Structures are given as C-alpha cells and as structure tokens.
Amino acid sequence: MRRNFAFLLGTVTGASLTALVIGPQGAHLVAAAKAAARSDTYTQLNLFGSVFERIKTSYVEKPDDSKLMEGAINGMISALDPHSRYMNEKGWSDMQETTHGEFGGLGIEVTMEDGIVKVVTPIDDTPAAKAGILSGDVITQIDDESIQGMTLEQAVGRMKGPANSKIRLKVVRKGAAAPIDVAIMREIIRVRPVRFKTDGGDIGYIRITRFNEQTTDGLKKAIASISKEIPPEKLAGYIVDLRNNPGGLLDQAVSVSSTFMNRGEVVSTRGRTAEETQRFTARGGDITKGKPLVVLINGGSASASEIVAGALRDHKRATLIGTRTFGKGSVQTIIPLGQGNGALALTTARYFTPSGRSIQAQGIAPDIEVLQDVPDELKSRAELKGEASMRGHLAADGAEQTGSQAYVPPNEKDDKALNAAFNLLRGGTVNANAVTAAKRAVPN
C-alpha cells in the first residue's frame, strides 16, 4: 500500500525521441542505446560490489553489513531531492506514529540541511515550545552526543522516548553569543491539529497546525462548534490560519479543501509521464454554506498548506492574507519495503493548483501582503529561505522565489495579519498599502 504525503518530476520531451524510432534503423539505434545504458549500470553495480567486499575484508575493524547497506542507500537517496529519504524499520514506525498523531517525544518539526538538524517549528503546547525552542534553531548535541554524522531519522529517534524521561539539547541560535543548553522532559505528544475559538461573537477562528489523520475530523468538529456558538445571521465568516504549518498527508489537504468547496478540482499531481497524472476533486460540499473565508499564510506554510491555500484562492473561495509560502510543490510517495526493511519516501510527482500553476520553489503569493513588526532580537531569524534555497531542490517552472517572513507575534493584538483578516470580514479597511494580487481566471 502506498501513502501519498504532501509531494516531483516534470514531463519528458517526446518529439525528438519519436523521430529516432521511425524505421528499422532508428529502432536499432534505440535498442543499442538501451543496451549501452544497461551495460553502464551493471558496471557501476560491479564497482559497488567491489567496494563493499573490499571494506568487508580490509577495514581495520569488522564492519556491520546492515549499517554499510543502510549507509549506501542513504548515500544514493541523497543524490536526489531533499525530500526523498530512506527510513529504516524504526524510522518507518516513528513516521506512522507521527501521522496517527500520538507519540512520545518533544514536539518539534525538524529537517536536515547540509548535515545539520534544524528546527522548522515547535508544535504548540508541547515540551519543546514550553522550553523555548524556536524555529531556525540548530540542534548540535543530544545528551552530550554530537549529531554530526547522524541521519535525520537517527537524530529524531534519539529525541523521541518514554514520557517523563529527560533529554538535554545543545542549540545554536542565530544572534546568540554562545550555544544554549536546554533540558526538556519528554511527554506523550498528542498532536491536536485543529484549534478554534470565536471572536467578538461574529467570527470563527480555526488554526490548523498540520495535516495528519485527525485533521479533517477536527476541522469539521470546529466548524460545528462555532456554528452552535454563533447564529448564522451573526456569523461574518471564518479565518483559517495555516501559518507555519509544514504540511502532511495529501488526502487530508484534499478533504480540508473540500470542506469549504462545493465542487471543482483541488489539486493535480503530475509524474514523469502523462499517464501518471492524477486529479483530485472536492467531495462532500461546503459545510460553511458559503460564508466568507480568509486564509492566513506565511513563509512557514508548506506542502499540504499550499495545496489548500492554492485551491481556495484559485476557486475564489478565500482571500489569502500574509506573506509568500515556502514553495514545496512535490509529492512523496511512501513505499514500504517489506517486513523489517523500513520504507522509502520517494518524490514521485509535482503538484499543481486548479489553475495549472506549480508552486515548486516559488510559493504562493497572498492576495493581500501583510508584514509583521518583528522585534529587533528576532529580525535575523524571522524569514525562512524557502524551498528554493534547499540544496538539490527541484527546479521551478519559472523564476524562483526565496525568502519570506514567517514570524507570528505571540500576542494577538500585535498580529497585523490576523487583525487584517478580522477587519476584512467585518467590512473594514485592510492595510491600504498592501500588495494585492491580480485575480486569475480558473478553468471549470
């Protein structure tokens, strides 16, 4: 069974290849080229086998064959894009726990760049967030052991553990004079992907922190609760906050979009060949009954968040407020490799918004751009570089965009984007100096 996560490859050119196969001579040339390619592949595999055997017989200490093979697989995957990866059995088990929404650990989303583990975002109300871990922090040591040389899965595995067990992290923070030591008590992390509240008796605010198996159910419960608290005639609309949401499951992005749409395409995915194209359409109907909708986005909104934002904007169902999104426009298909062998997260397709636009390494620009006032001590890390800055990323279809503000003020009264959303839904003026994106026609 394959699981799609939020997202790769473009199309192959066909005209020149077709010309080569016209006539018997052309067919012979193609067959010869394929044979040469196979021969070259076998030569490389023979080289790998020779190196493997030499290490086994000549290394100063007897190596662990399984570790050698895992290292070889990781090395091969590292030659692809930054989102493809191999997970050993434990890593695969940990990932399943995360998508289910419950695991023992710290509550942080991390990534690996150039061999270092960087915090993407701490999850709300988790030990990491309470201990002061911030987006952009670089973790260099876990319990006095250097992370250097570990894979991302190994580092994450070290940070997870039984509830009520302690862990010490050494963190390098931009702008700090010295590394910071942080002691954290692990807890059972029950990722609550949806939070909501009512504001002023006329607006429903919904915060979606990630797209796991519980997200759509949580969203529907939030809307039902808001509808009970605010009578329909008083409900001015909804705010859906996707800021610093790193993404998650593709099917959840589709179902979340469907919650606000009566019909139409949500997203399409295009693989290496035209036959691999898939289209996902809205199902279930708009349970908000067409109430006005504002979606908040920023530089930390990635992947599944961008699918939702792109679909709702393209269908003119929502107004996007904030800053340009991260720009992760590729699908990772999870391919289990058999009992005890873990799984492969392989980039298999690029995704496109309903208007046919790829956001890979470009992101989605808001309809209304609102920049936050960032405290001086945080200015050096208030902006994320985005997908376009990641080594080995898939190239954009057009000019790449790097960098977008990802800071969200902790106090709502200072949150300019949120206040702009409230003003818009209540019919007020929204940031007179804002940059407003041109409306796009959408094929239906």
UniProtKB/TrEMBL annotation:
SUPFAM superfamilies: ClpP/crotonase, PDZ domain-like. The keyword Zinc-finger does not apply. It holds the Pfam family CtpB_N-like. GO terms for molecular function: endopeptidase activity; serine-type peptidase activity. Keywords: Hydrolase, Protease, Serine protease. GO terms for biological process: proteolysis; signal transduction. GO terms for cellular component: outer membrane-bounded periplasmic space. The keyword Protease applies. Residues 92-160 form the PDZ domain. Belongs to the peptidase S41A family. This is S41 family peptidase. It comes from Bradyrhizobium australiense.
